[in-house]
UniProtKB/TrEMBL annotation:
All residue ranges annotated as the Glucose-methanol-choline oxidoreductase N-terminal domain in the record: 93-116, 266-280
Oxidoreductase is among the record's keywords: yes
Keywords: FAD, Flavoprotein, Oxidoreductase
Cofactor: FAD
Entry EC no(s): 1.1.99.1
Organism: Bradyrhizobium niftali
Name of this protein: Choline dehydrogenase
């Protein structure tokens, strides 16, 4: 490793050289950095604009309910035409672990169909049979094994330790609605309802950082982790990526890469950094005075996310969480139990139950997903209510609408402009109407009715037009943006099936932005799989040289 220093206009530029520089310590970045640094002869630098994320508010699952801006970019969307011009909220993880440090910890891979579809689009090596070994390699599943599950991987997966009797009630409601009960959502089929597995260990959140990076900081001499390091541009020599410039405090620094620069900043900030570095649509770059390193029109296009509606009910059921964190004596008892046993309420991921359903019987795969929440969730939990209660999300798994991400300005510290284009396609709205009806069928079972003290928003919703109106008034994200650096071989693809950026050298993208289409489920486990597969492809190329 080499180091150089020079002063420019009062700012210090520090330059060091590694084999790989990974930008973004989210699920993909932590995974690929952790795996590549297993080879002591390979040096890896991992950068993230946030902090270590080792606070109890991160490691304690219940901390999900507590605002913690230091770990959240908390982006907004542009006004959404399909949502009556409303501005949506887009929380994204900041710091080690990325969104796996602030998510609901639900362990879902998606459907076999999703990956076979990727392969059918021309992405060889990405069928379900191809990616299953990487899911298994990552996983240490305490509850399941066999053909579909792994033991001994760095990512701990297990059943919840909250001991909440609501699971029995939810399962009973599923039976009353004549939905099948599903024990394992990550086997050959995932249609049905049940209790989710989570990425926890010993009752604590197990983020991608805790799985792949934290155990090795200070122990692997070849792994360098830089926090509070905001990447500002990729450095090019000709068409070859040779490093990254970043701001850390008041200093402007550089890290050089002998082999590759790896972008892993997520569906919003990976395309943003490419655009800031001159890789993207040439006309759009010129509008911001950015020189074109390579014209690549697909950068920032193809944004997909799960549009989501939330049913909310007040309830007197004693095992729901008050949105203002009231009922202090019971909360104190829960904290004491957590300290003793690492069990109980403090281990909740809130989205304890849910599953996958078809809105029409003839469909090949489920088209909606439910998340059953043990608290009233209004406006992403930002609006509080005086009563305790529960919620049930329903999201559309494979929306037809496509959005985009672009630059607000050439300022690398400015937030990107985000347009998910929710309900932009009429078909999405109609499928959400069917999803609303399917979910209401569950909510109207005797088991669910017995829990309800007050229907907060949907009591007067009766006709299809009523449903369409409330969807446009209340739909927003369920936090699964993907696709803005699409993998493929067509003119709008950004990376090839090896995740290399088209038209340049020594630059890959390893995060959810490479997904050509949105998978049918939560996106954390698939992004970790992408990191595992990327590391394997990179090592294979190194050994072949």
């Amino acid at each position: 490793m080499t180091t150089n220093k020079k002063t420019l206009k009062g700012e210090t530029t520090l330059t060091e050289t590694f084999d790989f520089v990974v930008v973004g310590a989210g699920s993909g970045g932590c995974t690929v950095a952790g795996r590549l640094s297993e080879d002591a002869a390979t040096s890896v630098a991992l950068l993230d604009a946030g902090g270590r994320n080792d606070s109890w508010r991160i490691t304690t699952p219940f901390g999900l309910a507590l605002p913690y801006r230091a770990a959240n970019w908390a982006f907004d969307t542009v006004p959404q035409k399909g949502l009556n011009g409303r501005i949506g909220y887009q929380p994204r993880g900041k710091g080690l672990g990325g969104s796996s440090a602030i998510n609901a910890m639900v362990y879902i891979r998606g459907n076999k169909w999703d990956y076979d579809h990727w392969a059918a689009l021309g992405n060889s090596g990405w069928s379900y049979a191809d990616v299953l070994p990487y899911f298994k390699r990552s996983e240490n599943n305490a509850d399941f094994d066999g053909e579909y599950h792994g033991k001994g991987g760095p990512l701990h997966v297990n059943k919840l330790r909250s001991d909440n009797p609501i699971h029995d009630v939810f399962h009973q409601a599923a039976r009353e609605a004549q939905f099948r009960i599903r024990e394992d959502f990550n086997a050959d089929d995932h249609e049905g309802l049940g209790s989710y597995q989570v990425t926890q260990h010993g009752g604590e959140r197990w983020s991608a950082a805790r799985a792949y990076v934290d155990p090795h900081i200070g122990k692997r001499a070849n792994l360098r982790v830089e926090t509070q390091a905001h990447a500002t541009r990729i450095l090019f020599e000709g068409r070859r990526a040779v490093g990254v410039e970043y701001r850390q405090g008041k200093e402007l620094k550089q890290l050089r890469a002998r082999r590759e620069v790896i972008l892993a900043s997520g569906a919003f900030q990976s395309p943003q950094l490419l655009l800031l570095s001159g890789v993207g649509d040439g006309d759009a770059l010129a509008a911001h005075g950015i020189g074109v390193a390579h014209h690549l029109p697909g950068v920032g296009r193809n944004l997909q996310d799960h549009p989501d509606f939330v049913f909310v009910y007040a309830s007197d059921y004693p095992h729901f969480v008050h949105s203002s964190l009231g009922r202090l004596p019971s909360l104190l008892r829960a904290i004491q139990r957590y300290r003793r046993e690492r069990r109980g309420l403090m281990t909740t991921n809130f989205a304890e139950c849910g599953g996958f359903l078809k809105t029409q019987a003839h469909l090949d795969v489920p088209d909606i997903q439910l998340h059953f929440i043990i608290a009233m969730l209004d406006d992403h939990g930002r609006k509080k209510h005086k009563e305790a209660g529960f919620s049930c999300h329903v999201c559309l798994l494979r929306p037809k609408s496509r959005g985009s991400v672009w630059l607000k300005s050439a300022d690398p510290l400015a937030a990107p402009m985000i347009d998910p284009n929710f309900l932009g396609e009429a078909e999405d709205l109609e499928t959400m109407v069917a999803g609303f009806k399917t979910t209401r069928r569950l909510m109207e079972t005797p088991a669910m009715r017995a829990l309800q003290k007050k229907d907060m928003f949907t009591s007067d919703v009766r006709t299809d037009d009523d449903i369409r109106a409330i969807l446009r008034n209340r739909v927003d994200t369920v936090y699964h943006p993907v696709g803005t650096c699409k993998m493929g071989t067509d003119a709008m693809a950004v990376v090839d099936p090896q995740l290399k950026v088209h038209g340049v050298e020594a630059l890959r993208v390893v995060d959810a932005s490479i997904m050509p289409t949105l998978i049918g489920g939560n996106t954390n486990a698939p992004t970790i799989m992408i990191g595992e597969k990327a590391a394997d492809m990179i090592r294979g190329e190194m050994w072949a040289r």
